[in-house]
Protein backbone atom coordinates (compact mmCIF):
# COMPACT_ATOMS: atom_id res chain seq x y z
CA UNK A 1 0.00 0.00 0.00
CA UNK A 2 1.35 3.45 -0.88
CA UNK A 3 2.05 6.03 1.77
CA UNK A 4 -0.90 8.28 2.68
CA UNK A 5 -0.52 11.97 1.94
CA UNK A 6 -1.86 14.70 4.20
CA UNK A 7 -2.01 18.45 3.59
CA UNK A 8 -2.13 20.69 6.66
CA UNK A 9 -3.05 24.36 6.37
CA UNK A 10 -1.80 26.32 9.40
CA UNK A 11 1.11 23.91 9.84
CA UNK A 12 3.20 26.59 11.56
CA UNK A 13 0.58 27.03 14.31
CA UNK A 14 0.21 25.18 17.60
CA UNK A 15 -2.09 22.43 16.30
CA UNK A 16 -0.32 22.19 12.94
CA UNK A 17 2.93 21.36 14.71
CA UNK A 18 1.40 18.63 16.89
CA UNK A 19 -0.59 17.18 13.99
CA UNK A 20 2.39 17.11 11.61
CA UNK A 21 4.37 15.24 14.26
CA UNK A 22 1.52 12.76 14.81
CA UNK A 23 1.06 12.06 11.08
CA UNK A 24 4.79 11.72 10.40
CA UNK A 25 4.87 9.21 13.26
CA UNK A 26 2.10 7.26 11.54
CA UNK A 27 4.11 7.07 8.31
CA UNK A 28 2.29 9.76 6.31
CA UNK A 29 3.89 12.04 3.76
CA UNK A 30 2.99 15.42 5.24
CA UNK A 31 2.63 18.64 3.25
CA UNK A 32 2.11 21.93 5.03
CA UNK A 33 1.13 25.40 3.88
CA UNK A 34 3.07 28.26 5.42
CA UNK A 35 2.72 31.97 4.89
CA UNK A 36 5.49 34.15 3.62
CA UNK A 37 6.74 36.37 6.45
CA UNK A 38 9.58 38.86 6.71
CA UNK A 39 11.32 36.66 9.27
CA UNK A 40 11.45 32.90 9.95
CA UNK A 41 8.06 31.66 11.20
CA UNK A 42 8.66 27.93 11.51
CA UNK A 43 9.84 27.72 15.15
CA UNK A 44 7.18 25.18 16.09
CA UNK A 45 8.06 22.77 13.28
CA UNK A 46 11.81 23.23 12.97
CA UNK A 47 12.36 19.90 14.77
CA UNK A 48 10.42 18.18 11.94
CA UNK A 49 12.32 19.86 9.09
CA UNK A 50 13.65 17.53 6.40
CA UNK A 51 16.29 18.55 3.90
CA UNK A 52 14.63 18.88 0.46
CA UNK A 53 17.90 17.81 -1.15
CA UNK A 54 17.76 14.27 0.19
CA UNK A 55 15.59 11.46 -1.19
CA UNK A 56 12.32 10.32 0.40
CA UNK A 57 11.47 13.66 1.96
CA UNK A 58 8.26 13.10 3.95
CA UNK A 59 7.70 16.63 5.28
CA UNK A 60 7.27 19.29 2.61
CA UNK A 61 6.35 22.96 3.05
CA UNK A 62 4.59 25.08 0.41
CA UNK A 63 4.09 28.82 0.47
CA UNK A 64 0.43 29.72 0.44
CA UNK A 65 -2.46 31.62 1.95
CA UNK A 66 -6.11 30.83 2.55
CA UNK A 67 -7.07 34.08 0.85
CA UNK A 68 -5.51 32.97 -2.47
CA UNK A 69 -7.62 30.43 -4.40
CA UNK A 70 -5.28 29.84 -7.31
CA UNK A 71 -2.44 29.03 -4.96
CA UNK A 72 -4.60 26.55 -2.99
CA UNK A 73 -5.81 24.84 -6.16
CA UNK A 74 -2.25 24.50 -7.45
CA UNK A 75 -0.95 23.00 -4.18
CA UNK A 76 -3.84 20.53 -3.91
CA UNK A 77 -3.45 19.53 -7.55
CA UNK A 78 0.26 18.96 -7.04
CA UNK A 79 -0.03 17.06 -3.74
CA UNK A 80 -3.24 15.05 -4.47
CA UNK A 81 -3.76 14.61 -0.70
CA UNK A 82 -5.76 11.77 0.86
CA UNK A 83 -6.55 14.05 3.80
CA UNK A 84 -6.71 17.82 4.19
CA UNK A 85 -6.66 19.33 7.68
CA UNK A 86 -7.80 22.96 7.53
CA UNK A 87 -6.20 24.45 10.63
CA UNK A 88 -5.22 27.84 9.19
CA UNK A 89 -7.11 30.79 10.62
CA UNK A 90 -6.83 34.22 12.13
CA UNK A 91 -7.48 32.47 15.42
CA UNK A 92 -7.49 35.26 18.01
CA UNK A 93 -11.01 36.16 19.15
CA UNK A 94 -10.13 39.64 20.45
CA UNK A 95 -8.13 40.51 17.32
CA UNK A 96 -11.10 39.50 15.13
CA UNK A 97 -12.96 42.58 16.40
CA UNK A 98 -10.08 44.68 15.01
CA UNK A 99 -9.89 42.78 11.68
CA UNK A 100 -13.41 41.46 11.02
CA UNK A 101 -13.25 41.53 7.22
CA UNK A 102 -9.90 39.78 6.98
CA UNK A 103 -11.09 37.21 9.53
CA UNK A 104 -14.22 36.49 7.46
CA UNK A 105 -12.07 36.11 4.37
CA UNK A 106 -9.44 33.79 5.83
CA UNK A 107 -11.55 31.80 8.31
CA UNK A 108 -14.87 31.72 6.45
CA UNK A 109 -14.15 31.98 2.71
CA UNK A 110 -10.80 30.23 3.12
CA UNK A 111 -12.68 27.06 4.02
CA UNK A 112 -14.91 27.43 0.98
CA UNK A 113 -11.85 27.88 -1.25
CA UNK A 114 -10.42 24.55 -0.09
CA UNK A 115 -13.72 22.71 -0.51
CA UNK A 116 -14.19 24.17 -3.98
CA UNK A 117 -10.64 23.20 -4.92
CA UNK A 118 -11.39 19.58 -3.96
CA UNK A 119 -14.49 19.68 -6.13
CA UNK A 120 -12.91 21.45 -9.11
CA UNK A 121 -10.05 18.97 -9.15
CA UNK A 122 -12.46 16.01 -9.04
CA UNK A 123 -11.06 14.80 -5.73
CA UNK A 124 -14.45 14.36 -3.98
CA UNK A 125 -14.00 10.60 -3.66
CA UNK A 126 -10.31 10.69 -2.77
CA UNK A 127 -9.71 13.59 -0.39
CA UNK A 128 -11.09 13.64 3.14
CA UNK A 129 -11.50 17.04 4.79
CA UNK A 130 -11.17 18.19 8.40
CA UNK A 131 -12.43 21.62 9.44
CA UNK A 132 -11.11 23.23 12.63
CA UNK A 133 -14.42 24.28 14.13
CA UNK A 134 -14.63 25.71 17.60
CA UNK A 135 -16.51 25.91 20.88
CA UNK A 136 -16.71 29.67 20.17
CA UNK A 137 -19.69 28.73 17.95
CA UNK A 138 -21.69 28.23 21.17
CA UNK A 139 -20.81 31.77 22.33
CA UNK A 140 -23.75 32.87 24.42
CA UNK A 141 -24.46 29.37 25.57
CA UNK A 142 -27.94 27.93 25.12
CA UNK A 143 -27.33 24.66 27.00
CA UNK A 144 -24.71 23.27 29.41
CA UNK A 145 -22.69 21.20 28.79
CA UNK A 146 -22.45 21.91 25.06
CA UNK A 147 -22.79 18.96 22.69
CA UNK A 148 -23.15 18.55 18.91
CA UNK A 149 -26.89 19.35 19.04
CA UNK A 150 -26.55 22.53 21.14
CA UNK A 151 -27.66 25.62 19.15
CA UNK A 152 -24.92 28.03 18.09
CA UNK A 153 -24.82 31.72 19.11
CA UNK A 154 -21.50 33.20 17.94
CA UNK A 155 -20.25 36.27 19.79
CA UNK A 156 -17.33 37.59 17.72
CA UNK A 157 -16.37 38.17 14.08
CA UNK A 158 -14.09 35.14 14.52
CA UNK A 159 -16.96 32.92 15.66
CA UNK A 160 -19.28 34.20 12.92
CA UNK A 161 -16.64 33.42 10.28
CA UNK A 162 -16.18 29.96 11.80
CA UNK A 163 -19.97 29.48 11.73
CA UNK A 164 -19.90 29.94 7.95
CA UNK A 165 -16.98 27.50 7.72
CA UNK A 166 -18.85 24.95 9.84
CA UNK A 167 -21.98 25.06 7.69
CA UNK A 168 -20.20 25.12 4.34
CA UNK A 169 -18.36 21.97 5.43
CA UNK A 170 -21.68 20.30 6.32
CA UNK A 171 -23.18 21.50 3.05
CA UNK A 172 -20.38 20.10 0.88
CA UNK A 173 -20.68 16.80 2.72
CA UNK A 174 -24.41 16.66 2.00
CA UNK A 175 -24.37 18.18 -1.50
CA UNK A 176 -21.34 16.45 -3.02
CA UNK A 177 -20.79 13.41 -0.81
CA UNK A 178 -17.45 14.67 0.48
CA UNK A 179 -15.92 12.94 3.49
CA UNK A 180 -15.87 16.20 5.45
CA UNK A 181 -15.89 16.58 9.23
CA UNK A 182 -16.09 19.39 11.76
CA UNK A 183 -14.13 18.98 14.96
CA UNK A 184 -15.81 21.32 17.43
CA UNK A 185 -12.78 21.69 19.61
CA UNK A 186 -12.86 23.39 22.98
CA UNK A 187 -9.79 25.40 24.08
CA UNK A 188 -6.59 23.43 23.96
CA UNK A 189 -3.20 24.62 25.02
CA UNK A 190 0.43 23.52 25.22
CA UNK A 191 3.92 24.94 25.70
CA UNK A 192 3.74 26.17 22.07
CA UNK A 193 0.37 27.92 22.46
CA UNK A 194 0.47 31.44 20.96
CA UNK A 195 1.83 33.86 23.56
CA UNK A 196 -1.23 36.14 23.48
CA UNK A 197 -3.83 33.51 24.41
CA UNK A 198 -4.67 33.72 28.08
CA UNK A 199 -3.06 30.49 29.36
CA UNK A 200 0.30 31.03 27.69
CA UNK A 201 0.22 34.73 28.51
CA UNK A 202 -0.13 33.72 32.17
CA UNK A 203 2.55 31.00 32.27
CA UNK A 204 5.05 33.09 30.31
CA UNK A 205 4.48 36.22 32.41
CA UNK A 206 4.55 34.43 35.78
CA UNK A 207 7.85 32.76 34.89
CA UNK A 208 9.34 36.14 33.98
CA UNK A 209 7.93 37.76 37.11
CA UNK A 210 9.39 34.96 39.27
CA UNK A 211 12.85 35.64 37.83
CA UNK A 212 12.60 39.41 38.08
CA UNK A 213 12.36 40.05 34.32
CA UNK A 214 8.96 41.72 34.65
CA UNK A 215 6.90 43.18 37.54
CA UNK A 216 3.32 42.26 36.80
CA UNK A 217 0.95 41.05 34.08
CA UNK A 218 -2.20 42.83 32.85
CA UNK A 219 -5.17 40.63 31.93
CA UNK A 220 -8.85 41.08 31.02
CA UNK A 221 -11.87 39.11 32.26
CA UNK A 222 -10.63 36.88 35.09
CA UNK A 223 -14.04 35.28 35.60
CA UNK A 224 -14.28 33.69 32.13
CA UNK A 225 -14.61 29.91 32.39
CA UNK A 226 -13.14 27.51 29.89
CA UNK A 227 -12.80 23.78 29.28
CA UNK A 228 -9.02 23.55 28.72
CA UNK A 229 -7.33 20.46 27.26
CA UNK A 230 -3.92 19.61 25.76
CA UNK A 231 -3.31 20.14 22.02
CA UNK A 232 -1.43 16.82 21.81
CA UNK A 233 -4.60 14.92 22.79
CA UNK A 234 -6.80 16.99 20.48
CA UNK A 235 -4.88 16.43 17.22
CA UNK A 236 -5.33 12.69 17.76
CA UNK A 237 -9.11 13.30 17.65
CA UNK A 238 -8.75 15.16 14.32
CA UNK A 239 -6.99 12.18 12.78
CA UNK A 240 -9.52 9.71 14.16
CA UNK A 241 -12.39 11.68 12.58
CA UNK A 242 -10.86 11.20 9.12
CA UNK A 243 -10.44 7.43 9.66
CA UNK A 244 -14.22 6.92 10.09
CA UNK A 245 -16.32 5.42 7.29
CA UNK A 246 -18.20 8.75 6.92
CA UNK A 247 -17.66 12.40 7.71
CA UNK A 248 -19.46 13.76 10.78
CA UNK A 249 -19.26 16.48 13.46
CA UNK A 250 -17.80 15.92 16.92
CA UNK A 251 -17.31 17.90 20.13
CA UNK A 252 -13.81 17.48 21.56
CA UNK A 253 -13.46 18.59 25.19
CA UNK A 254 -12.35 17.45 28.65
CA UNK A 255 -15.71 17.95 30.43
CA UNK A 256 -13.96 20.01 33.15
CA UNK A 257 -14.31 23.76 33.56
CA UNK A 258 -12.09 26.32 35.31
CA UNK A 259 -11.91 30.11 35.48
CA UNK A 260 -9.00 32.27 34.33
CA UNK A 261 -8.52 33.12 38.03
CA UNK A 262 -8.14 29.41 38.87
CA UNK A 263 -5.66 28.97 36.03
CA UNK A 264 -3.55 31.84 37.42
CA UNK A 265 -3.59 30.30 40.91
CA UNK A 266 -2.55 26.88 39.58
CA UNK A 267 0.28 28.36 37.50
CA UNK A 268 1.53 30.45 40.43
CA UNK A 269 1.48 27.39 42.71
CA UNK A 270 3.93 25.69 40.32
CA UNK A 271 6.40 28.45 41.24
CA UNK A 272 5.71 28.13 44.98
CA UNK A 273 3.52 31.23 45.06
CA UNK A 274 0.18 31.44 46.88
CA UNK A 275 -1.99 34.28 45.59
CA UNK A 276 -4.97 36.12 47.04
CA UNK A 277 -7.39 37.88 44.69
CA UNK A 278 -8.52 41.26 46.07
CA UNK A 279 -10.92 43.90 44.76
CA UNK A 280 -13.44 43.66 41.95
CA UNK A 281 -13.81 44.37 38.23
CA UNK A 282 -11.08 46.63 36.86
CA UNK A 283 -9.65 47.05 40.38
CA UNK A 284 -9.08 43.36 40.98
CA UNK A 285 -5.48 42.31 41.65
CA UNK A 286 -3.67 39.12 42.63
CA UNK A 287 -1.25 39.55 45.54
CA UNK A 288 1.43 37.13 46.71
CA UNK A 289 0.51 35.96 50.24
CA UNK A 290 3.01 33.12 50.68
CA UNK A 291 6.21 31.99 49.00
CA UNK A 292 7.74 28.52 49.22
CA UNK A 293 10.71 26.90 47.49
CA UNK A 294 13.43 28.71 45.57
CA UNK A 295 11.98 29.12 42.10
CA UNK A 296 10.65 32.61 42.66
CA UNK A 297 12.19 35.84 43.90
CA UNK A 298 8.75 37.36 44.58
CA UNK A 299 8.09 38.87 48.00
CA UNK A 300 4.96 38.44 50.10
CA UNK A 301 2.71 41.45 49.49
CA UNK A 302 3.71 42.02 45.85
CA UNK A 303 0.88 42.50 43.33
CA UNK A 304 1.66 40.44 40.25
CA UNK A 305 -1.64 40.43 38.31
CA UNK A 306 -3.73 43.48 37.46
CA UNK A 307 -6.77 44.01 35.22
CA UNK A 308 -6.61 46.20 32.13
CA UNK A 309 -9.99 46.79 30.42
CA UNK A 310 -8.07 46.92 27.10
CA UNK A 311 -8.34 43.13 27.15
CA UNK A 312 -12.12 43.09 27.62
CA UNK A 313 -14.04 42.06 24.49
CA UNK A 314 -17.04 43.98 23.10
CA UNK A 315 -19.07 40.77 23.48
CA UNK A 316 -17.59 38.07 25.70
CA UNK A 317 -18.00 34.31 25.89
CA UNK A 318 -18.29 33.88 29.65
CA UNK A 319 -18.54 30.13 30.01
CA UNK A 320 -17.83 26.99 27.97
CA UNK A 321 -18.02 23.35 28.98
CA UNK A 322 -18.04 20.50 26.48
CA UNK A 323 -19.62 17.06 26.45
CA UNK A 324 -17.44 14.79 24.28
CA UNK A 325 -19.57 11.63 24.74
CA UNK A 326 -20.07 11.18 20.99
CA UNK A 327 -16.31 11.27 20.35
CA UNK A 328 -15.77 8.80 23.19
CA UNK A 329 -18.38 6.39 21.82
CA UNK A 330 -17.67 6.70 18.07
CA UNK A 331 -13.99 7.62 17.92
CA UNK A 332 -12.82 5.90 21.11
CA UNK A 333 -11.29 9.27 22.02
CA UNK A 334 -11.00 10.95 25.36
CA UNK A 335 -8.80 13.64 26.85
CA UNK A 336 -5.88 12.13 28.75
CA UNK A 337 -4.10 15.20 30.16
CA UNK A 338 -5.41 16.82 33.34
CA UNK A 339 -5.37 20.59 33.74
CA UNK A 340 -2.79 20.20 36.53
CA UNK A 341 -0.44 18.32 34.18
CA UNK A 342 -1.03 20.81 31.37
CA UNK A 343 -0.22 23.76 33.63
CA UNK A 344 2.88 21.98 34.96
CA UNK A 345 4.18 21.31 31.43
CA UNK A 346 3.51 24.87 30.24
CA UNK A 347 4.98 26.44 33.39
CA UNK A 348 8.13 24.31 33.21
CA UNK A 349 8.72 25.26 29.55
CA UNK A 350 8.19 28.96 30.16
CA UNK A 351 10.34 28.87 33.28
CA UNK A 352 13.30 27.46 31.36
CA UNK A 353 12.77 30.03 28.58
CA UNK A 354 12.80 32.79 31.21
CA UNK A 355 15.96 31.32 32.75
CA UNK A 356 17.64 31.56 29.33
CA UNK A 357 16.52 35.20 29.00
CA UNK A 358 17.84 35.91 32.49
CA UNK A 359 21.21 34.40 31.59
CA UNK A 360 21.40 36.55 28.46
CA UNK A 361 20.54 39.63 30.50
CA UNK A 362 23.06 38.83 33.25
CA UNK A 363 25.77 38.45 30.57
CA UNK A 364 25.12 42.08 29.58
CA UNK A 365 23.15 41.45 26.39
CA UNK A 366 19.70 42.96 25.85
CA UNK A 367 17.13 40.44 27.11
CA UNK A 368 14.47 39.26 24.67
CA UNK A 369 11.20 40.94 25.56
CA UNK A 370 8.25 40.79 23.17
CA UNK A 371 4.99 42.54 24.00
CA UNK A 372 1.35 42.17 22.99
P1 LIG B 1 -2.63 29.23 15.72
O1 LIG B 1 -3.04 30.66 15.76
O2 LIG B 1 -1.52 28.75 16.59
O3 LIG B 1 -2.24 28.83 14.21
C1 LIG B 1 -2.94 29.33 13.13
C2 LIG B 1 -2.21 28.95 11.86
O4 LIG B 1 -2.91 29.49 10.73
C3 LIG B 1 -0.78 29.48 11.76
O5 LIG B 1 0.01 28.52 11.09
C4 LIG B 1 -0.94 30.71 10.89
O6 LIG B 1 0.22 31.09 10.21
C5 LIG B 1 -1.99 30.19 9.92
N1 LIG B 1 -2.69 31.24 9.18
C6 LIG B 1 -3.34 32.32 9.66
N2 LIG B 1 -3.91 33.02 8.68
C7 LIG B 1 -3.62 32.36 7.53
C8 LIG B 1 -3.91 32.58 6.17
N3 LIG B 1 -4.61 33.65 5.77
N4 LIG B 1 -3.46 31.70 5.26
C9 LIG B 1 -2.72 30.62 5.63
N5 LIG B 1 -2.40 30.37 6.91
C10 LIG B 1 -2.84 31.23 7.85
O7 LIG B 1 -3.96 28.39 15.98
P2 LIG B 1 -4.12 26.94 16.68
O8 LIG B 1 -3.08 26.04 16.18
O9 LIG B 1 -4.32 27.13 18.12
O10 LIG B 1 -5.55 26.51 16.11
C11 LIG B 1 -5.66 25.79 14.87
C12 LIG B 1 -7.05 25.97 14.31
O11 LIG B 1 -8.02 25.50 15.22
C13 LIG B 1 -7.45 27.41 14.01
O12 LIG B 1 -8.28 27.40 12.87
C14 LIG B 1 -8.27 27.82 15.24
O13 LIG B 1 -9.18 28.83 14.91
C15 LIG B 1 -8.95 26.51 15.55
N6 LIG B 1 -9.28 26.27 16.94
C16 LIG B 1 -8.32 26.38 17.91
C17 LIG B 1 -8.61 26.05 19.21
C18 LIG B 1 -7.60 26.17 20.30
O14 LIG B 1 -7.99 26.18 21.46
N7 LIG B 1 -6.31 26.21 20.00
C19 LIG B 1 -9.96 25.56 19.59
C20 LIG B 1 -10.87 25.44 18.47
C21 LIG B 1 -10.52 25.77 17.20
P3 LIG B 1 1.36 31.99 10.95
O15 LIG B 1 2.16 31.04 11.81
O16 LIG B 1 2.11 32.52 9.78
O17 LIG B 1 0.65 33.02 11.74
P1 LIG C 1 -10.53 32.11 23.45
O1 LIG C 1 -9.07 32.06 24.11
O2 LIG C 1 -11.00 33.50 23.25
O3 LIG C 1 -11.39 31.20 24.26
O4 LIG C 1 -10.24 31.51 22.01
P2 LIG C 1 -8.23 33.14 24.93
O5 LIG C 1 -7.18 32.40 25.62
O6 LIG C 1 -7.84 34.30 24.06
O7 LIG C 1 -9.31 33.70 25.98
C1 LIG C 1 -9.93 32.84 26.93
C2 LIG C 1 -10.68 33.70 27.94
O8 LIG C 1 -9.74 34.42 28.74
C3 LIG C 1 -10.17 35.76 28.84
N1 LIG C 1 -9.02 36.63 29.10
C4 LIG C 1 -8.03 36.91 28.26
N2 LIG C 1 -7.75 36.45 27.01
C5 LIG C 1 -6.62 36.91 26.41
N3 LIG C 1 -6.31 36.43 25.19
N4 LIG C 1 -5.79 37.81 27.00
C6 LIG C 1 -6.03 38.31 28.24
O9 LIG C 1 -5.28 39.14 28.75
C7 LIG C 1 -7.19 37.82 28.91
N5 LIG C 1 -7.71 38.05 30.14
C8 LIG C 1 -8.80 37.32 30.24
C9 LIG C 1 -10.85 36.04 27.51
O10 LIG C 1 -11.68 37.21 27.60
C10 LIG C 1 -11.61 34.75 27.29
O11 LIG C 1 -12.82 34.76 27.95
C11 LIG C 1 -9.39 30.38 21.85
C12 LIG C 1 -8.75 30.47 20.45
O12 LIG C 1 -7.77 29.47 20.35
C13 LIG C 1 -9.79 30.29 19.37
O13 LIG C 1 -9.14 30.20 18.11
C14 LIG C 1 -10.55 28.99 19.64
O14 LIG C 1 -11.56 28.82 18.68
C15 LIG C 1 -11.15 29.01 21.03
O15 LIG C 1 -10.11 29.19 21.98
C16 LIG C 1 -11.87 27.72 21.37
UniProtKB/TrEMBL annotation:
E.C. designation(s): 4.2.1.47
GO molecular function: GDP-mannose 4,6-dehydratase activity
Cofactors: NADP(+)
Location of the NAD(P)-binding domain: 7-346
InterPro entries: GDP_Man_deHydtase (IPR006368), NAD(P)-bd_dom (IPR016040), NAD(P)-bd_dom_sf (IPR036291)
Catalysed reactions, semicolon-separated: GDP-alpha-D-mannose = GDP-4-dehydro-alpha-D-rhamnose + H2O
CDD domains from the UniProt entry: GDP_MD_SDR_e (cd05260)
SUPFAM superfamilies in alphabetical order: NAD(P)-binding Rossmann-fold domains
Keywords, sorted A to Z: Lyase, NADP
Key word Lyase present: yes
Alphabetical list of NCBIfam families matching this protein: gmd
Matches recorded under HAMAP family: GDP_Man_dehydratase (MF_00955)
Family: Belongs to the NAD(P)-dependent epimerase/dehydratase family. GDP-mannose 4,6-dehydratase subfamily.
Stated role: Catalyzes the conversion of GDP-D-mannose to GDP-4-dehydro-6-deoxy-D-mannose.
Record-linked PANTHER family: GDP-MANNOSE 4,6 DEHYDRATASE, GDP-MANNOSE 4,6-DEHYDRATASE
Protein name: GDP-mannose 4,6-dehydratase
Amino acid sequence: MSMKKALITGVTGQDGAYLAELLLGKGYEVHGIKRRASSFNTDRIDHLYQDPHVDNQRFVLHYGDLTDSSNLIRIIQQVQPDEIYNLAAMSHVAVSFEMPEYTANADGLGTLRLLEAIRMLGLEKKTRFYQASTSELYGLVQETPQRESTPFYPRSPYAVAKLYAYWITVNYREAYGLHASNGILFNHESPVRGETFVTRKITRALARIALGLQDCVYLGNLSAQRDWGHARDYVEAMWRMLQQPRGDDYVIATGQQHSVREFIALAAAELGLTLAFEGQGVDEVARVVAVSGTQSRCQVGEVIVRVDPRYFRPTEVETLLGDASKAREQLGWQATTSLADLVREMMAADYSAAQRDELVKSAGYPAYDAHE
